[in-house]
Write the structure tokens for this entry.
Amino acid sequence: MRKNTFRYITAVVFALFAAGSQLFCQSNAEYEALLKRSEDNTAFYETDFKGNYTVVQNKPGEGQNVTEAIMYRRDKTASWTILVTGPAKEKGKGYLQFDNNIWFFDPADKRFTFTSAKDKFQNTNANNSDFAPQHYSRDYSIESASEVLLGKMNCVLFTLKAKVENVDYPMLKLWVTKDDGLVRKKEDYSLSGQKLRTTGIPSYQNIQAGNKTYSIPVSMLIQDNLKGKKIGDKVQYEQTQITIRNVVFEKVADTVYTKPYLEMNSVK
């Protein structure tokens, strides 16, 4: 009798273990699929992208600086162009990526200088890479994933660790909404675990192009967690808000993704 009881209990334990393992694997696969979806939502491989960007840099105690720009992207060839249109003293400056290189053009001396994805855009808290497709699934491995609430949004909180060297940050925390695979918040960390930046994307705009709908951030708020100033009794950090409007998905001329295009549109 005891043998039969022992065998029964053992069989139940193994069955529960097997069921738990299957659910664990299923959850992992679902999380990996959601992370891949969040990556895919940042890229537009079927068409070119054009949009107007307003970049507002806020330095505590120093006021704001506003940059206006037009962004062009052709993600299928990893090419993009940013033409600065304002203010007047910055007008005509530009950025160009092609062949895995990023170039900055200054119309004052008509010269192109090499820059990188990690460099800051117009001395703001935004990196050049913030304007391009993100590669969460390709470049990072999932250290942990759990379901959480971000405000009223049901999200999966990913902790990611870089599996390649050429990334802006070796560790990320990513809040991705479960229903649509959109990134709502991101924290960038150093290898030692120090929080460097926080990015919030509270809302998206849906743009119809042909038979497909693309989700584009209405705005992004980037906070530099290393650059703060105590004002009164509170530390205030530098912040950059990027607002995107007038989005169009249609092919633009190949010449837009070339150095001569920036040279022709310079005003200095």
Q: What stands out?
A: Residues 2-40 form the longest helix (39 residues). The helical segments are 2-40, 136-139, 259-264. The two ends are 95 Å apart (CA to CA). The chain has three helices and 15 strands.
